[in-house]
Specification:
The structure is a homodimer.
Chain A (H helix, E strand, L loop, with lengths): L8 H12 L6 H8 L7 H13 L3 E4 L4 E4 L10 E7 L5 E3 L3 H8 L8 E12 L1 H4 L2
Parallel strand pairs in A: 3-5
Antiparallel strand pairs in A: 1-2, 3-4
The complex binds zinc ion (4 copies).
The structure holds a DNA duplex.
Chain lengths: ~130, ~130
DNA sequence: TGTTATTTGTTATATTATTACAAACTGTTA
DNA sequence: TAACAGTTTGTAATAATATAACAAATAACA
């Protein structure tokens, strides 16, 4: 059998919720919201999240321990991700900038290490919060 | 009184331990190791860590929930950090590359957001692990 | 069908981090 | 000095995040 093509029921339930959300969701907030759909234990949510991250349908915002749906159709896997995070309202946006991704994907330093993945988080104030 | 110049006792104890370590340390591992020095509760460690991160003496590796001492003398505050992380042996190195930091510090996208901070984590295999 | 691998359900537990509040210490000023 | 304000510390309790272990159900397929 080749790599999974379809999402399992639990994965789909979790993905639907994350995609509907306008803000990053935390695992236990997801759990609370899918309990009526039958996912009763943390592990069921974490398993779904793990798989969805692996296949690039969602990303984890590491500094917030929260998850967002990928809005970037060219982002099939979670191996080159960049986000902007407002430190006031906590709005998170996935950055889709080909120059940036090219620059980082090709980045090499003198450590002899070959990078195959990166995650970048920018922090600041969004337009709205800046003007308050 | 102006901004704190000297570290408190607890901060110094925690910093000493993190600086001595060749690998990122987790908060509860730090706690275990400083208990003989009198820091008995998680909060004492977390408070020290928070302050040390704030003043740039240490950095948090977000994807690992672990802390490393800053090896970069020009890095007074934790507002522009980049790390390479080996996914096999978990070795972490702070990247000190002025081109990269200049590029990211000056990065602007079309969101109207002004960034004042970023954190970048590269993943891959270090030289040693690559040749296994 | 029987066999294997994957996914799921369930309980328990481990790990990471914060709240709340009282006590001790530090520097300032009446 | 004594009162005070601000900061740091100690302590207990608890919240929030994440994983281990194992049995049951389901899916792929020879
Ligand atoms: Zn994406
Ligand atoms: Zn904002
Ligand atoms: Zn540094
Ligand atoms: Zn390695």
């Amino acid at each position: 059998m080749q790599k999974q093509q379809y999402l399992t029921k639990n994965q789909q339930i979790v993905l639907d919720l994350v995609e509907k959300s306008s803000e990053p969701l935390k695992a236990y907030s997801i759990l609370f919201n899918v309990q009526k759909k039958g996912l009763k234990a943390p592990l069921q949510v974490y398993r779904a999240l793990d798989k969805l991250v692996e296949i690039g349908k969602i990303h984890k915002i590491e500094s917030r321990n929260a998850f967002v749906a990928c809005k970037n159709s060219s982002c099939q896997v979670s191996k080159a991700t960049a986000f902007s995070i407002c430190e006031s309202c906590e709005k998170v946006t996935e950055i889709n900038n080909s120059k940036l991704s090219k620059y980082l994907t090709n980045f090499e330093d003198n450590s002899g290490m070959k990078y195959n993945k990166y995650n970048l988080e920018f922090f600041g104030l969004c337009k709205k919060c800046k003007n308050k």
